[in-house]
Automatic annotation (TrEMBL):
The keyword Hydrolase does not apply. It comes from Ambrosia artemisiifolia (Common ragweed). This is Tetratricopeptide repeat protein 1. Keywords: Repeat, TPR repeat. Pfam families: TPR_1 (PF00515), TPR_2 (PF07719). TPR repeats lie at residues 69-102, 103-136. It comes from the Eukaryota. InterPro entries: TPR-like_helical_dom_sf, TPR_2, TPR_domain_protein, TPR_rpt.
Amino acid sequence: MEVKDQTHQTYEDALNDDQLNQKILTQMNEAKVEGNKLFGDGLYEEALLKYDYAIQLAPETPSSSEIRSICHNNRATCFFKLGKYEDTVKECTKALELNPSYMKALIRRGEAHEKLENYDEAITDMKKVLELDPSNYQSKRTIVRLEPLAAEKREKMKEEMIGKLKDMGNSILGRFGMSVDNFKAVKDPNTGSYSISFQR
């Protein structure tokens, strides 16, 4: 009876796994290159399919995380070109989950957030870019440009919320022949607190 050498078998298995992973990574890279060519020709939908194919091939291993991250960012760029900004944000987020310091994905996601008028989120991404590269003037300029828009949007949202609360208050108080206009908030200059007074 022949006893097999377990060590030799394990080494062969490891070699086969390594060769298989290398073959898959090569196929992924080829799909990515084909995607890049299609993107260069302005065929964004077709490029998306190639990048998606590369991601589908990818084993969930650290060796493939870089190329997966790049393919997600490339998909994000295709979606951006197609005007699909929510999909751009999703793909950039996937790229950043694999590589949190991926500057291109941060910048692209910030640009998509700006298009969606999510100014605070865009500013957050640009600040992260500056943490990674303090000399990135594009991000500095974007932050300066977006901060007043973000403040204006916050103010508008606050006014809308107050309006909704007033409407809700009026619908309840209306049953009693009153409205929120019957209540006045008076600020105490010493304490900064408000007191509510009722007026007919």
